[in-house]
Amino acid sequence: MTDRRILLNPGPVTLSAAVRAAVPGPDLCHREERFTQLQDGIRRRLSAVHPGQDLSTVLVGGSGTAAVEAMVTSAVPPDGRALVVANGVYGERMAAMLERRGTPCTTLAAPWTEPLDPAAVAEGLDAADVTHVLTVHHETTTGRLNDLAAIGEVCRSAGAELLVDAVSSFGAEQLDLDGWGVAACAATANKCLHGIPGVSFVVGRRDVLDRATHATSLYLDLHRAWTQQEAGTPPFTPPIPAMAALDVALDEHAEAGGWAGRGRAYRERSDLVRGGLVAQGCSLLLDDPAALSSSLTAFRLPRGVDFDRVYRHAESAGFVIYAGQAALMDQIFRVAVMGDLGLTDLERFVDHMGALPR
Ligand SMILES: *Cc1c(COP(=O)(O)O)cnc(C)c1O
């Protein structure tokens, strides 16, 4: 066991020294001018990570799911007709959010190892008078980067609004909000942006946020949070330490070259891990390497080896890997490369995995 733990799960991430040092934050009341400056700076910079026309950001206290739920349940009216396009846990979770709220929706579910089918989405849009399409950009369940451009195209021609869970892609993958016709997307501080858990957010066009008035939850009311943040005062006590950390994490994100630079660094890291583990006889869950995200890889568990054994072996050298979810729990392990880590850490990881007793 080494002192330094390296988190190879898809968030929370291994923190840089500067982000860690920022975590306590200043002693600050959220009704002070200095807080408003912190909040304004974060919202402005988040709106610019993936540039687009007329964007604004709403901060949400809570994990990524809080931002997704605030977006979905505020933007889709109770009598709206939503089509959820899902190929993993997180897509299916978006449908569950609407169902909890009492809004029926249709789910177009692809097998988790398969891509989304834009032609099937077009058919689904034709069949029902769909107002909103909900989907996931990077489906963390499998490490697949879904083809949002194709889905967006289909939504645009049908006049449906596209709402995206970009929780594990925001800040590291191409996300062309205007070009792909994304109305709003939700994400979090503690994945590709390298902050700590506690603050999540929705980035969307102002006209979309202006109409996102349909929340039945008081806390997850996106429109109310947005108008009050615009006025400088958040409705409820915000996660100030997480915001202080995100402020520094956004400096580092810009220094790293924004989403493109961070995505390039992730690709280099993932190539190293994929090449190394495949050379040791591991195989990838997804057949199509072009479909893989930059930040995460799902590997099939070696025959006769359960996740717990792989986890304990990795952890004995300070590396934390991630299990599969639901039906994939007994089949895969996942390795994410987000966070403050370097290629030498990953070389050490690959070497150590070569010594996994089989
Ligand atoms: C991590 C993640 C979430 C949110 O998970 P939390 O545990 O609430 O932070 C949502 N969607 C995707 C695709 C994710 O990877």
Please, could you describe this protein's structure?
The two termini are 21 Å apart. Strand 3, helix 4 (89-100) and strand 4 (105-109) form a beta-alpha-beta unit. This protein has helices at 17-22, 33-49, 64-75, 89-100, 118-127, 148-158, 206-211, 222-230, 240-255, 258-279, 307-315, 343-354; strands at residues 6-7, 55-61, 82-86, 105-109, 132-136, 138-139, 144-145, 161-165, 182-188, 199-205, 296-300, 319-320, 322-323, 332-336. 40% of the residues lie in helices and 17% in strands. By secondary structure, the protein is of the alpha/beta class. The chain has a seven-stranded mixed sheet, sandwiched between helices. A three-stranded antiparallel sheet has the order 11-14-13, with helices on one face. The radius of gyration is 20 Å and the shape is globular. Bound molecules: pyridoxal-5'-phosphate. The site of pyridoxal-5'-phosphate has 13 residues, from helix 3.
What labels describe this entry?
about 350 residues; 14 strands; globular; about 40% helix; binds pyridoxal-5'-phosphate; alpha/beta; seven-stranded mixed β-sheet; three-stranded antiparallel β-sheet
Q: Outline of this structure?
A:
The protein is α/β, with parallel strands linked by helices.
